[in-house]
Write the structure tokens for this entry.
Amino acid sequence: MKKQRQLLATILAGAMLAAVVTGCGAKEEPAPAEAPAETPEESAGDEAEEATETPAEASEEEAAPAEQKGVLMMATTTSTADTGLLDYLAPIFLEDTGWELQWSAVGTGEALKMGENGDVDIVLVHAKASEEEFVEKGFGVERFQVMYNDFVVVGPTEPVAPTDDIESLFKTIQEDQLTFVSRGDDSGTDKKEKGIWKKLELDPAGNPNYLESGQGMGATITMADEKGAYCLTDRGTWLKMKNDADVEIQLDIICEGASDLLNQYGIIAVSPEKYPEVNNEAANAMIEWICSEEVQGLIANYGVDQYGEALFTPNANE
Amino acid sequence: MQLVREMLDAAFSDVGVFDAVCVTFQLAFGATTISSVLGIFLGLLLERARFAGKRVVIRVNRTLMGVPPVVIGLVVYMILMRRGPLGKLNMLFTVQGMILAQVLIITPIICGMTYTSLVSKAPAIRTFARTMGASPMQTQWLVIRELKKELYFAVVTGFGRSISEVGAVMLVGGNIKGHTRTMTTTISLLKSQGIFTEGLTLGVLLLVMAFVIQSLADFFQRGEKTDENY
Amino acid sequence: MRITDLEKKQGDFQMKIDTLVLEKGKIHGIIGGNGCGKTTLCKLIMGILRPDRGTLDYEGLDIRKITMTAQRPYFIQGSVYENICYPLKIRRIRPDEQKIDQWLDRCSLAEKKHQYARSLSSGEQQKVSMIRALIFDPEFVMIDETLSNLDPENLELFEHVIFDIQKERAITWLLISHRLAHIYKMCGELHFMHEGTLLASGGKHEILFENKDDRIRRFVANEVIKMETSV
């Protein structure tokens, strides 16, 4: 039933997209009331994107649902979804293994919580300490590292010149009370940033211009842009925002390349011992698949066409 | 007050709950007051005025009554952003900006509800006022006085919309801790952190506070009624 | 007052009155079948409706001295007393407590003075609306079926009230009622309306008994038969 609805939403999203593209709204099918409610906005949007990027796969998906084995539900961070990586991988995953990947893109904290509650089959997040705790508590089977991307500090080029010294940058921000927008949502990125402050033994709350947005990465970058402020972001989201946002982002990378700024992603299957109803078969298939040399190669090349550089560096085999 | 702040901040994660409560009510009172004045005025005007396209205006009003707040939030965001038409006002990510967004959401609701109650009840009141020899001003005043209950209900509805709204205040306010974070955006944040129980507690707190304010308002309403031997 | 060339269209209903003269200081009655335009005429005189054409010459009468009571009167939220005071309040006249109490006594409403007006029975409401209309000493009073549903005792009470006022100040009255006996008893002048037009005006004998117009004769005959059967 759920699959059918999902399919219906996909078709609908495709039809609406087609209507917009051809400029004739008249051909829109009336939306069945429950379909959009069942599908979160984000994933409907994702599917629309998917349809633009890979129309061939999308139509195959509609044409041959019989080949599917079932659905793998993933909880992941906003960065993997916002960069479009999952949109890119999902159809290939379906083709290779027969499992349909669906995901809910939330903060790391919430993603792990969804795993703890057995609401998803697998988690793909980036907060090593929390991930290890997740496995230790018995919610996850085993953690596999998949890839990393790196963080960058973006902001106005005045008054701070671009640097590769993250420590001096953070000190300057604190001392000169420069405006800094923090995620403040306990996400992987937020934990990273808090970690740096902690390492430097600084309390950012002492800076009256230190703001906590409590929102996702994209919204936080937009806010930093509006306020002419600094913020810590993962490179993938930054590139995507810089590239795709309607309003040109006027910030630049101020700090990159520091070893403190690496962002390791791990993938963990939710324990079938704890939750027998999870789809462990598909989860294992996903782990094996994403760590395979072929897929690691795909990840290494993702984004090169569009942004001129790769968004993620695979490291499953290190 | 300091005690309340300490109690709240101790009870919840470090998300600035006390400030969020303050912002929520600052926003709700500000937006409801402005919207009530505007909405009731426009409702009165709409009922009195006769012009071509009035039916369209009413239909637009009805549509706006159900406009998704997030759409208004986006529009206000685009107007207030640095490179938007009103970027110079520096109102994005401020409580004033949030009030503006909510005024745009709530005014049509109060206006529509005012208009509806006027259409069904005002003609009889006007006829009566005329037979009593009331002047136009006295007539208008009588209409407002007689529809006090309906207008009060419209205002209360607006207030409820304001404190429960999350989409527009998230976009326009930016959910900045201690500045523009409201109770609803705090709940949204807590949810994104996987802290569901605190989110729920805050939701209950919001409802309780709404209930208290509602009860107070009802109490004053009823106070007048008993004088009239109702 | 004098009405000339009056025209008013309301949906399918068309009102057209060439000349209607309501002589000052007399009790006028309007009769006619349902939907003949009696209430519309009152509303035009009251200024609630605007005529499409024609003139209403009030002959120096202040429109604020005109009042009208409806069959189902409106009451402001508040007590009987507040309702009676309303026309005084808007004229900034201090209510004469004694006078109000006399009125309420005479209408056996003394105990209900502070009751919520909308909780009264319909008969009581009609009595209050009469008091409310008369309390500010109007010069021209239209009574649109307000007295029609009162019991004979109360009807008689208000008939006396009207005669008393008439003896004292001689104001102008315009009564609408389907109770022909009441109209016959009260009015000196009668105006017969039919489908939006004024068919005849004149003294009550002339209209009720001596008129040659078939429509008027039929109306009167029907009303008499109705009265007979209801007794």
Residues 5 and 191 of chain C are 16 Å apart (CA to CA). Helices of chain C lie at 38-46, 80-90, 97-106, 122-134, 152-169, 180-186, 204-209, 214-230. Chain C has a mean pLDDT of 90. Chains C and A do not touch (no CB pair under 8 Å).
